[in-house]
Every structure is written in C-alpha cells, then in structure tokens.
Amino acid sequence: DAGITQSPRYKITETGRQVTLMCHQTWSHSYMFWYRQDLGHGLRLIYYSAAADITDKGEVPDGYVVSRSKTENFPLTLESATRSQTSVYFCASSESLWGGTEAFFGQGTRLTVV
Amino acid sequence: AQRVTQPEKLLSVFKGAPVELKCNYSYSGSPELFWYVQYSRQRLQLLLRHISRESIKGFTADLNKGETSFHLKKPFAQEEDSAMYYCALGSGSRLTFGEGTQLTVNP
Prior knowledge:
A: globular
C-alpha cells in the first residue's frame, strides 16, 4: 500500500538499551522528519532529512541518531534509552517545503522506557 | 531561528459558538504556514495552508505578517471539530510545530 508506515506501533524497552524505530514511505518524497509528541510540548522536531544521505538536527536531537541511506527509509535510533525518551514518535514525509506542500504523517510509535 | 507559539493548550466552546485558535510565529524570511489537525485515534493531517487561502470544514486562517499571526477561525463550532490542532511553519528544510491546542466542542 502506498503511504508512510512506522514500526513498531508500540515498544517497551529498558533503560540503557538501544532501540530503533522504523519509518518507510512509498512516494519517494525528498523530505522526511522525526518528531516526538509530549503533553505540554506539542510536536518537537528531532531530526530531519532533505534527501538521501542528508540529515540535520532539529530542536531535540540529543540521544538520537538517524540515517538515510535510501530515500524511502528514515530510521531513528535511541542509542541508550532513557526514561525521558518515553514518548509518542511520529515520522513524516513531504515532497517539498514550498508552495504549501502537505506533509504526511505515520501512525506513530508509542515508546515506553522503563 | 523559527518558532511557533500557540498560547492556549486547552480551549472549550459550545456547539454553534465561534472559535478562534491562536498561532504566532517568529521567522525572518517568508513563512509557509499550515494548520494540522489530529482527531482521536487518527493520524495528524493537513487542515489548511496559508498559500491557498481556502476554507476547509468551515475553518479559515489569515496570515497577518504585521502581527506575525496565523489564527484559525470557525464561525460555528461543531462537535466533530473536537481535536488537537497544531500550527506549523515551513522554512528551509524544516517543518516546525507549535505546542498544540486541544479543542473541545461541547453539546
């Protein structure tokens, strides 16, 4: 199916473990984003990518790593999970950031760090 | 640096009443502004964009560059409008969101 999908939908992990959240889009959109959604903070940008092999930090990048070897995939890795990283994570993609182009969001991954 | 501020975290109105969700931004260039909505158990989705000057589901938003605002308005709120609303700013390669406003429309 065309679209943007995240996996897993739910994840429980222990403090200190490495965990990777996957994001896959089928449109070949250039731009991809990772956000975390927390009560009182809204959506905060973690990392973004303008194309394959081009990534950049957002507002809250500490503790996270991304890669984009292929246009369609944009995995987010928590190198050593902490409880403060318990959140709902959203991936998004967009063809452009000009001309009012819409960004499309995944269904989210609810991550709990215990 | 770009920033989006939504001063109201919670907004509650009665059905049929007007509603206004506030959004202010800071950005030195020409902004691309959007409103996204997240209904319960659904994905975040685009509601409207300033460049289109459109009305979607009865909602409108006008970009006021002098006041650096992009407030979302609807003259008569409906119960199905209850959702989380996010204002967003597109700039360079980034898409920055505000903190969100949870709108509840009471019967």
